[in-house]
Structure formats: C-alpha cells, structure tokens
Amino acid sequence: MHIECHAQREFPGTAAQAFALCIDSARFPLWFRGYGPIAAIERVEADGVPRVGGRRTVYNTDGSVLHECITALDPPHRHAYSLSGFRVPFSWLVRHGAATWELADSGGGTRVHWRYAFTLTSALAWPLGKPLLAIFMTGAMRHCLDNMARALSPEGD
C-alpha cells in the first residue's frame, strides 16, 4: 500500500538554476526545515558528485539518519532517489520512500514538481500514515519549495 505526496511551485530562473538547487547537498538543509512531526534536515553528506547509484546520508534534527540512493539523474529535467533507514516510530508506518523531482520551463521561470511515494508497512498503517504524510510531509515539501524559490529570487536567500 502506498501514500503519495505532491508539491509544486513556480521558480524564477532557468531549469538549470532550479535543478542545481535540487541536487545541492550542502545547501538543501537550509530549505528543508520540516513541518510538525517531520524533522528538519541538519546536513546531507554525499558520496561524491550526483550520479545514478550515488548515495547521500541525511542527518535530521531529531537525530534520525536516512539514506538516499539516486535512481535517476537527467539534468536539468529530472532527479529521483529512494529513501530508507526510517527509525521508530516512523518505521512502524513506512517501509520505503521514492522521490521524483521534475522540472519544466514555464513562461519566465521553471515549474518544479516534487513527488514522494511512500510504501507502508501494512494496510494497518494507513489510518496514521495517511494524515502524517498527506498533511505534514506534504507541508514540509511545500515549505521547502517556497524556500528554494526565494533563494532564486532577485532578493536571494
């Protein structure tokens, strides 16, 4: 059983500029600040330059450590990765996550669409997993995209 989360936002600037933000491991924690029970990202450590098969370790402000594996990288249009390593209590609900970022030129800017598909541990996880992810993870994603768009605005971050 899966739960999907979606967030999209218009970014100023080119798709290449927006894509660079999406894969910037050093700066991404500045934008992903969490929401409710979804922890902010403290830091991200990459195992080298972004590439299919590349790995990133995500350290969150709640002490959890997650693992990303890049599954697609098509600059400046698409970036995807798997997410694993959830800890209790989240691991009671979610077994695995898969994220996709898609970017497309849109007028004078770039349309960024970020999608997550979370695999639940069982159907019994749905009553708690659905509101947690649909409300709080989607909220964290939207806030993150807002922060990233501000970073590309003429005023900067």
Could you outline the blueprint of secondary structure elements for this entry?
Layout: E1 2-12, H1 15-22, H2 28-31, E2 41-46, E3 55-60, E4 65-74, E5 78-84, H3 90-93, E6 94-106, E7 109-120, H4 126-152
Antiparallel strand pairs: 1-7, 2-3, 3-4, 4-5, 5-6, 6-7
Q: How would you characterize this protein structure?
A:
The chain is α+β, with helices and mostly antiparallel strands and 157 residues long. It has one domain (2-152): START domain (Alpha-D-Glucose-1,6-Bisphosphate, Chain A, domain 4, 2-Layer Sandwich). 27% of the residues lie in helices and 41% in strands. It has 4 helices and 7 strands; from the N terminus they run βααββββαββα. The chain has helices at 15-22, 28-31, 90-93, 126-152, and strands spanning 2-12, 41-46, 55-60, 65-74, 78-84, 94-106, 109-120. The protein has a 7-stranded antiparallel beta sheet. 25% of the residues are buried. The model has no long low-confidence stretch (mean pLDDT 96).
